[in-house]
Amino acid sequence: MSEPSSILNAAAEARANEAAAAALEKLKLARDDVPATAIIFTSRLDQKVAWDEPPVGVELMHLPGFRELQNATYPTVPGHARQLIYGTVDGVPILGIRGRIHLYEGEDVVTTRQMVRLMVDLLIHLGVTTIISTSVVGSCTRAVRVGQIGIATGFLRSGERMTSIGSEGFPTLEDALDMPLVDQCLETFGFQGIPVVHYFWNSSTIEGAAQKRAAERLGAHAISCSGQPEMECVARQLKAGRKLSGLVLACVSNGDEHSNEAVHDAVATFGKGWIDLLL
Question: What pTM did the predictor assign?
Answer without folding.
Answer: 0.90
